Amino acid sequence: MARTSMEGGLVEEKAAELKKELQRAVKAIVDEEEDECSVESTNRAMQCLCALRDLKLKPLGCSESLGIGNLSLLGLLPPKEFLCPLSGEVMNDPVVLSSGQTYDRPFIQKWLKDGNQTCPQTQQILSNMVLLPNHLARKLISKWYKENGLKPPCCPLVEEDMPGTLKVDTGYLNERLKKLSSSSVSDQKEAAKELRLLTKQMPSVRALFGDISDSITQLLYPLLSGAANSHPDLQEDLVTTVLNISIHDGNKKLVGENPVVVPLLIESLKSGNIETRTNVAATLFTLSALDSNKFIIANSGALKPLIKLLDEGHPMAIKDAASAIFSICIAHENRGRAVSEGAVRVIMKKIKERVLIDELLAILTMLSSHHSAVEDMGELGAVPCLLGIIRENTSEPNKENCIATVYTLCFTDRTKLREVWAEEQTNGTISRLAKSGTSTSRAKRKAGSILERLDRSVFFAHTA
After folding, report:
1. Residue 414 forms part of a structural domain
2. What is the tens place of the pLDDT at every residue in 282-294?
3. What is the DSSP string of 281-320?
4. What one-character DSSP code corresponds to residue 272?
5. How many other CB atoms are there within 10 angstroms of residue 55's CB atom?
6. Model-level pTM?
7. CB of 106 within 8 A of CB of 91?
8. 3-class DSSP assignment, residue 103
9. Which of 81, 94, 124, 387 is the Cys-Cys partner for 134 at CB 3.0 to 4.6 Å?
10. Is the dihedral of CA 66, 69, 73, 79 positive or negative?
11. How far apart are alpha carbons 415 and 421 in whole angstroms?
12. CA gap 250, 236 in Å, rounded
């Protein structure tokens, strides 16, 4: 692309500044004694060379080519709010997660596609994977570029089909779905494998399922007929295709409310190989982003096999199982069912083993609002365990979840105050948390309330 005269002049001006800076850095290196050669001078020279290279490779107006280091060398220091927490670079396409935090789209997409289901900054388990454009941030960043004589970067396209793939329409998709009702298992496997690949690579194909009547039931015919029971690869491909389809927000209701889907997923969660069970857990997590689906999934009996999968602790599956349980239990009515199915016992066991502690502490705190969960936690030694984590863990969200759960235990079951008092006398864990300058405001409030309750209890004990 040709530069405008203004951009060209700005490039030449910045290049001249960089050359002068490079000369100073090189002179400093040459003038120093060999054994005193400054690493700082060398690094500075290399930075200048890199910035000059970038200016030559691409016009300054194409600001997406300039990293934060090169912008700094050009005398430009972007506000820290414009930087993506994952890349450390100025955001080209800022989007907001369900946690409320803003990231650059390609970097947070990679984070999520790598299997992470938490917010990188807050460590909260995400209630959904929807990425909403942050129009205000984009407007402010664009304004900053223009004020500094730079052309704002073009906003990249939101997820699109893989380049070079074939054109898939409803007719093509119907043909593949009909193959799944074929009597030939080899035909079913071929169609299932292709649909899994297409729905992974082409978002447009996911949307097409909503345009075909009874498409989801046709897709799952081999599971309904039992043909897939003795073919784990076929079962895995079908389940994974449902997962891919469910990523499309418009399909969550379509898939979740189909009467055959959730029961078949639960059956696969019980009987499939570990890859299938992992993908079922991920599918249930994705579907449960829709509130109405949370009840469908829980009422269909998904929590018990999800808790079993969590208990088994397979590295591939445990995170997806925990995420699904958390999302389903956001609905308060589902928490009692999770507790009755043994969730607290399994979660406490994993926490004591220091397995997936961030996610499991978040679930435990959520379940602590149910009275039966409090009883289970008390019997399983939750108080000393959680206070121990506060002492050893540097994660402020984890400390907050621990003290919030201890707070609920103390104010629901007064007998737990004695345990807290004994621990406080020995270690002073809660007092330190209440005074810590790094603690969250919620953690400090909960710690302070516990200390006040302890003071009152001791006072009454002395005056009785």
Report:
1. yes
2. 999 999 999 999 9
3. HHHHHHHTTSHHHHHHHHHTT-HHHHHHHHHHT-TTTHHH
4. S
5. 19
6. 0.65
7. no
8. strand
9. 94
10. positive
11. 11
12. 23
